[in-house]
Amino acid sequence: MFTHVPQPLVYAESLLAHFSSLSLSPDGASLLADFARAGAELSGCELTQVYLLDVTRTHLGMSVECLNGILQPRDPANLPANYNGEQLLQFALCQNRVVSLCELSGSLHDTTFLPTQPRPWQSLLCVPLVNRSKAVEGLLLCASRQHIDLQGFADSLGRLGSFVLGQLHLLQRLRKPVGETQLVRSVPNVSGYGLIGKSKAMRDTYSLISKVLHSPYTVLLRGETGTGKEVVARAIHDGGPRRAQAFIVQNCAAFPESLLESELFGYRKGAFTGADRDRSGLFDAANGGTLLLDEIGDMPLPLQAKLLRVLQEGEIRPLGSNVTHKIDVRIIAATHRDLQLLVSEGKFREDLYYRLSQFPIELPALRHRAGDILDLARYFADQACSFLQREELLWSDAALDHLSAYAFPGNVRELKGLVERAVLLCEGGELLVEHFSLRLTAARDDTRLNLRQQLDQVERGLLLDCLRKNDGNQTVAARELGLPRRTLLYRLGRLNINRSNRDV
User: Residue 161 falls within a domain, yes or no?
Assistant: First the structure.
């Protein structure tokens, strides 16, 4: 056994830095996640866990778990309802006593709350989290696979934890979540990656994210417009080893070919008219970090060949230069288009497609995320109220039912816009049905329609969704629907669908 003793001055500076950074955390979820990371860094432990009591002070729940510097996904289905049966945790909680064990593997203590690892856990520190009223509200647990005397960290981690509780209460008073007044509930329904949603489709997505975080593979994010591809890309970056470096986003559809090339690769002075100085590109800016190439399906073919070389050789050559240089950038690509179809049409390089799709992740449409709509709606409403500096709003049951019954062709982006508009329209303290303007609602609720008319509405909705998904391309839409193009045109005419009303 040995005692892990950092240099006092260095440790004090690090502790003060964590106090300062924690004071800037924007919400409860970020605050607790940052606290877990701080505990790991200060103690030198591979594992930290944060437990908080519920409003009744009878159930102890795990809020955050950080393993090897990475937040672990929180799947409520695989977590105990409470940790009241864990004697070590209950002793520290009920007795308000620090627990420090240096020979954990040889003890008789039950440690089923620790994740199973190839190497056994050897050292453990459990610090009660005490509020300003001297009441215990939770625990910080640190564990290491090494034999370390962690007792010396208890005082500083306890003071940091008390500060975190104060910040958490302050954030609660500022936000006042409806029906969620306890610390445990101040963390929204998020995974360990900061993504909201507990549906099976999202749990599957979290599982895929966890498998690719620490690999060098290129990730291809696929999904309809508005499904949150950039949010997932940032989650992959923030959860991986490059999180301390830059995360840069470039929309490949936003620039013509010549400008996009100079934006990505940079240029040398004199490369073209107006190039009066050397300029680094986004590959250089993202060196050591992550570059998200959004709407990769819209990248011009000549530029695709240059991107392929970057992926294969890890080097770039700026415009106007004869010299290449190495870069270390993780590429994440995103698209709402069918790249395989573009390959078959000769609009996308086949070799680049296979290089990009090393690890594809299909993001689910909101209509396939059962139960997530209301969680997201409440979250966006809270954000809007906080931004507008107004009291948080109640939700009428009718408004919630109204949202649940809608298909959201624009996915999460459409939901966010609808909720923000509703918050602006709401002059009282409760969000009502009339604050939301959902397309096709009136037609759906018209029970006077006969069967033929109702079937036409269903067909119309399917056609509109397919056209929006494919940017109005009728040929691609017909192929996806399994219809001859002439048949599709006939159905569009019969249902009075034209460019002015299909919103693509």
Answer: yes
Angle (CA) 231 299 228, round 5°: 15
Q: By C-alpha distance, which of 42, 45, 73 is closest to 142?
A: 45
- DSSP 8-state class, residue 106: G
Of the CA atoms within 13 Å of residue 201, those in its CB half-sphere come to 16
Same domain, 175 and 157: yes
Nearest to 328 by CA among 315, 312, 340: 315
Domain hosting 472: range is: 449-494
Q: How many CB atoms lie within 10 A of CB 215?
A: 12
Task: Render pLDDT for 259-288 as a digit per residue (tens, 0 to 9).
Answer: 898 899 998 888 888 888 888 899 999 999
User: Between helices 229-239 and 200-212, what is the axis angle to 10°?
Assistant: 40
Each residue's pLDDT tens digit, 403-412? 888 888 889 9
Residues 146 and 141: their CA atoms lie apart, in Å, by 15
Q: Within this chain, do residues 163 and 235 fall inside the same structural domain, yes or no?
A: no
Q: What is the pLDDT of residues 180-232, one digit of tens each?
A: 333 333 334 455 567 888 888 898 998 898 888 888 889 999 999 999 999 99
The number of beta carbons lying within 10 Å of the beta carbon of residue 239 is 23
Q: Are 49 and 62 spatial neighbours (Cβ–Cβ below 8 Å)? A: yes
Among residues 300, 335, 362, which one ends one of the domains? 362
What CATH code is carried by the domain that includes residue 488? Answer: 1.10.10.60
pTM of the model: 0.54
| Phi, psi for residue 208 in degrees, rounded to 5 | -65, -40
pLDDT digits (tens, 9 = 90+) for 445-486: 444 567 777 777 778 778 887 887 777 888 888 888 888 888
- The answer on 291 and 157 residing in a single domain is no
